Amino acid sequence: MDPRGSEQTDAATLDDASTTLWRALDRLLETAELDGIIAHKLGPLAANRLRRLGQPLPPALRAEERAAALANAVAVPLIERIRAASDGPLLVFKGPEVARLYPGRARRFVDVDLLAADAEGVHAALMAHGFVAASDDPDEVYVGHAHLRELKWPTMWLKIEVHSRTDWPRGVTGPPPGTLLAAAVPSSSGIDGVSAPNPVHHALVLAAHAWVHEPLDTLRDLVDVAAAAAGLDEAELERTAQAWGIHRLWRTTRHAIDALFYGERQPLPLRSWARHLPAVREKAVLENHLGRWLHPYWELPPAAAAGRMAQEFLDDLRPAPGERPREKLLRISRAVRNPKARVDAE
Question: Per the confidence metrics, is the pTM higher than 0.70?
Answer without folding.
Answer: yes
